[in-house]
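User: Hey, my collaborator sent me this sequence without any context and asked if I could get a structure. I don't really work with proteins. Can you help?
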Amino acid sequence: MNVHNEFNGRAVFVIQAGSINAPVNAVITAPEDPDERLARQLARLVQRQWHREADVRGLLDPVPLATRWVADQAAHGDHEQLAGYLEQEHAGDLDSFAEAFRALPKQRLVLLGDAGSGKSSVALLLLLALLDRRQAGEPVPVLLSLGSWDPHQLLPGAWLAQRLAEDYPALGGAAVAERLLTARLIVPVLDGLDEMSPHLRGMALTRLNESRADGTPLILTCRAAEYDQLVSEDAVLLRGAAVVRAVPVTPQDALEYLRTVVVPQRHAAWEGVFATLEEELPSPLLSVAASPLMLGLLRIFAGGSGDPVVLLRFGGARELEDFLLDALVPTVFAARPDGPRWRAGPAERWLRWLALDMTDRQSAELAWWQLHRRATDRQRALGAGVIGGLATVVVMVLGGAPSWPPGGLVNWAVIGLFASTLGGLLGQFAWRPVGHWEVAPPLRGMFRIQPGSPLSRVPRPVLIGLPALVLVLWLGWSLASLLSYLQWSQNHRGTEPSLFPVAFLAVAVVLTANRWAERLAPGLPRGNESVDPARALALGRWRTVLPALVVGLLWAVCIALVFLPGQADTAGSLTVALTAISVGAFAGACRLVRSLWYAYLHARLQLAFTGRLPLRLSAFLADAHRLGILRQVGPVYQFRHARLRERLAEADRVSP
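Assistant: No problem. I've predicted the 3D structure and written it out in structure-token form, which is a compact way to encode the shape of the chain:
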């Protein structure tokens, strides 16, 4: 960032995106301070995530683009004695902007600008610069998107704690996030006030002013027009905040940038573009080049094989912007260094469908646990029933083939009856709305004694010791019964021992495992886990398949323990074993089809079959992120800019 002495009488900050080269570890302080230890842990998580994301977005490029900002305190800021002011003598790179922010009395800042002016990019770079110079006891900047906040439903503190727990689950949950917020060890960097519904923006600022009245640091980004409407019509602004506003990129900066990013061998082909910018006469190209977003798209276009002469043929800036947005996906997918993994045509069709889906949901986020909304409960139940019926046919044919020919009419009628019955039951289990489940409390929370209840007056040693004693005695009885039965099975002398305690214990274990499976059912990221989208999906799959396997295995063991002791021959034992396996498979399948991950899997396969999404969705989204189409925010993806999402969601295409 460089600060020029004058820009229409106001301080001008020139921020260059490539001024951060490498992450710097947080300063280590005394280990006896638990809050600081948590803050250092959060700082490492935030720095690792956003440095990688800044690299993906090209913000750490060795050829940076200067973004100019001017102080806008008089029009949109609070009183100078409350908000402070950005002194003109600060000069240098992005580090100077960070120091200017740190010098503000309340460390509150609003970044305003038009669409594509670089607000989110500067917020990200400012976050990294603040992390770079963070000292012990200072707050940790955390970048969050405001699009998911409903201020009518959640207060800012509760929403911030919830988002921190979701985006940084390794921190330890919402309680730890609330602790850091209470200790003023977090600087919320809230991106995209303009992405909220218009009727929520004023309430959001009011809530922020109410909850942050103690002067907690805060950084907010918003489009200038939307914020101006809030200030002029609703008479609400962020209290105690300094305000800066992005100004258009100058033709000289745009020309210098494009001359640098275009390879020397293609300068001759781009001379028409260079001349248009150098003349500084009003034109669609000059208007488009004033936006950092569009300059970035021009750079991507320059890296492809397109003819730059086409950029001069448009009659309006909007048409040229649409052309550059339309050229983005084909260019980046065709320019992969390892060859085209996905063809540009299908890739664009899939991204357009995702943009339409996000628009319909009025959400800027793309997460695996949201995709199931594109498949109805009826479709999911039908799919589960068909799969269950076919699986039953296979099991009965394979299991009955050694003892009876499966080709008889009566046998096939029996198979069909069982298959239709079990398939119908499985479909009924799958007929359940998903997507609104809450994570169940830990098992110990289910047995918590309420204050004032009769059990609360019982001494704690009795409450803990008596159940433990019963459990130990029952385990001993079960073990003795099992050993007695094994000894009796060798010589069959005396009365056959009962396996009732073993079977009862197995049923208790099954019921406990079922409650555990209910706790894991949503499969959403939580404590001590990665925030990567691919890892979040893997966790959801693991939390679905593992409980299904455990529940199915326990049910099979229960059936075997109850019925195997009464069998005297091999054929009977084989029948019981087959029955136990079938019951276990059915119990596991019932658990599987009731999960959020199964709903996602069904919707993904259905959408892939109809051509709206690729079969390997996770790999495709990861590639789109690496190519700069998407950006990663915690466990979810977003399009790199709302303007790109809006363009992809449009039905019409614009060509020169």
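In plain terms: The longest helix spans residues 460-491. You can pass these tokens on to your collaborator as they are.
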